[in-house]
Amino acid sequence: MDLLRHLRLFVTVAEELHFSRAAERLRMAQPPLSQAIRRLEKDLGAELFDRSQRSVRLTAAGVVLLEEARELLARENRLRTLARRAGDGALGTLRAGVPPDTTAAVLSALLAACAERSPGLSVDLQEVTTEEQLRLLDSGGLDVGLVHHPVDATELRLGPVVSLDLGVVLPRTSPLARLPEVALGELSGHDLVLFPRAHAPGWYDRILDACRTAGFVPGRLRHASNPEFLLALVTAGHGVAFDQGPVARKEPRVAWRPLADRPLTQRLSGAWPADRTAHPAAGHFAQLAADVLTRSHTAIPRGDRDHRPPDDSRRPWSVVYG
């Protein structure tokens, strides 16, 4: 016997206290309804309705069952709702990887966007390199990642790709810092501070290929995983670096300048397993990440987007580092 179905029929009859009206409300004939109630009574071993008079009344057992049945049916509805929401990715935990160079502003905006879209979803954000993300996505250690291109996407689904133009980070005292934009070839003779190749091999090799093509062969390669360490090396005169700009603008001893002709375009996208076990919220996370990265990049001050040096006259450190 389908107990929940029979309980729904019982509750309707109990609310109407009239079999004909209950059958009409349920859009079914009265005889099958009466038979279903008899079967429920037999299964429970108790009379639920007093049918001895013209009116139908609940027995003591019926009164008790009515309260319990309403609670049980309400819990069933809640269970179904929760299951649907979980199936849509609105509940549970989403394990998401982001590159170590992701700025605090982007992370904050991404978490806020996830919380707004799916308040019941807990996002376990992990700082993981692209190479490690690919391994974890394959082994099931991550549900979704934000990866640097190029990547082998044979077993992955990819979200919208965001293209971000990189500029060069220079010591503020460098003659090149006086230029509105810098060509890659003009960096010849400088050392280069770059993230370790193991973080994103494809993107690392593409950067060096672009440098060599433009005539910039770094005298020495230095590696920095942490953006703060990267800025410290540039400040100390140990090389130049490539960056989108927001982090460098917070350090008064360095200058960020656009690269002429935009030779270095960083491409990122969300990635998640292509099989049926993929987390239902993975695609939504990838879209939100793309939206946040796009907004973050277009929020660069107008002067910098127009390839003009920033106006240092309003900055307190211009007296020292101008």
Distance between the termini: 85 Å
Question: What is the global morphology?
Answer: rod-shaped
Rg from C-alpha positions?
A: 32 Å
Q: Given the helix and strand composition, which structural class is it? A: alpha/beta
Give the strand content: 15-25%
Domain count, please report it: 2
Q: Determine the oligomeric state from the structure.
A: single chain
Number of helices: 11
Mean pLDDT: 87
The helix/strand series, from N terminus to C terminus, equals HHHEEHEHEHEEEEEHEHEEEHHH
Q: Which class of the largest domain in CATH terms?
A: Alpha Beta
Uncertain stretches: 301-322
The CATH topology of the largest domain is D-Maltodextrin-Binding Protein, domain 2
Helix content: 40-55%
Named at the architecture level, the CATH assignment of the largest domain is 3-Layer(aba) Sandwich
Q: How would a crystallographer describe the biggest sheet?
A: 6 strands, mixed
Provide an overview of this structure.
With 322 residues, the protein is α/β, with parallel strands linked by helices. It has two domains: 3-87, Orthogonal Bundle (Arc Repressor Mutant, subunit A), CATH 1.10.10; 94-322, D-Maltodextrin-Binding Protein, domain 2 (3-Layer(aba) Sandwich). It is built from eleven helices and 13 strands. The strands form three sheets. Strands 3, 4, 5, 6, 7 and 13 form a six-stranded mixed sheet that branches. Helix 7 links the parallel strand 9 (192-194) and strand 10 (221-223). Helix 1 crosses helix 2, helix 1 (3-16) crosses helix 3 and helix 1 packs across helix 4 (60-87). The protein is rod-shaped, with a radius of gyration of 32 Å. Residues 301-322 have low confidence and may be disordered.
